[in-house]
Amino acid sequence: MFSNSEKYSYFAYGMKIDSSIRMPDLVEGGTGSDVTFRFGILSDDYLNDIIRTPVLDTPGCRVRVSERAMSFDWPIIGKILIIDGREVVAQPAPGASEDDLLPFLTGPAMIALLHQRGFLVLHASCVLVNGIAVAFMGAKGFGKSTLAACMYARGHTLISDDIVPVYFSGDRVHTWPGYPRIKLYPDSVVAAGSDPKQLPYIHRLIEKHSFACPNDSFVDPVNLGALYVLDKSDVVSIDDIDLSRTFIELVTNTHAGHHLERMNSQERHFRQCQELVRLIPSFRFSRPHRFDEIDAVCSTLETHILGLDRANG
Hints:
This protein is of the alpha+beta class. It is 28% helix and 35% strand.
C-alpha cells in the first residue's frame, strides 16, 4: 500500500507543490502549497460521482472529463484524478511502482491541472536565447525536443519541454519554467552531444531518455517573445506566417484540445489563441530532418532570434 507519510516540496510551472509522491523531475523547494499531490483510493463509483459525464474509452486509457475535474485510468499504471486545479490524487495499479506513475503525473495530469488553472497549454518546447524566450511547435516527430536539447547544449537555457503554459498580463505574454529535463530518443541524445547509455529512461515502458538540463534557481516567469512552427525541408529557412495560419497552429498544438468542450473552456481557449497571435510574432522554421546539419540549423535560429532582439531594442 502506498503511503502519504512522506512529504516533498517542489516548484513547477509557477506552482508550489506539496506532495506525498516523490517526483524527481521537478525542482525541489518552496513553502506553502498551491497544489497537492497524494495517494488515494479512486473507485469507479467515487469517480462517477465527482465527474458526472460519460466515460471516454481512448486507446489504453479510460478518461472522465468535466469542468472541474478530470481522471485517467490506465490498467497497468493506475488511476489519477485532477480536481479544481488544486489537487492530484493517484492510485497505482496492482503491481505498479511509484516510478511507473511519474511520467503520467508530470504529463497528462499536469496538463489537466494547468488547463483547470486557466492557462493556454501548448504542446511545444521553449528555450531562452539572448534573453528572449521562444517556443517551438510542430507535429509529433518534427523535432521540438531535439531542437530544444541542441540549443541547450549550445549554452541556452531550457524553459520547458513538451508543455508550455501561457498566460497574459496587459500586452505581455508569459510562460513559466517546467522541469529541468528533456525527453529524448537515443539518436536525439547523440545529436545533443551526450551518450544515451549514460542517461536513465523516462519509464520502463518508454524508449525515451531523460536528458537533464539543470538550473534549479530558474523558477520565475519569462516573457514569451516568439513562436516557431517547425517544418521539414531540404533547406533551412525562416519565414513569416500569416495570423490565420498561426491561429490554426495554436489550436492544433494545444494539449488536450479535444477535451476543451467538456472542460467548458473552449471559448476561453479561442480568446487566448487570438490574443497570442496578436501580441507576439510567429514564424515557420523549415529545416532538414538530419542530425548532421543540426549545428547549421541552430546557428540560423540563433541569428534570427538575435535579429528579433535588435528589432525590439
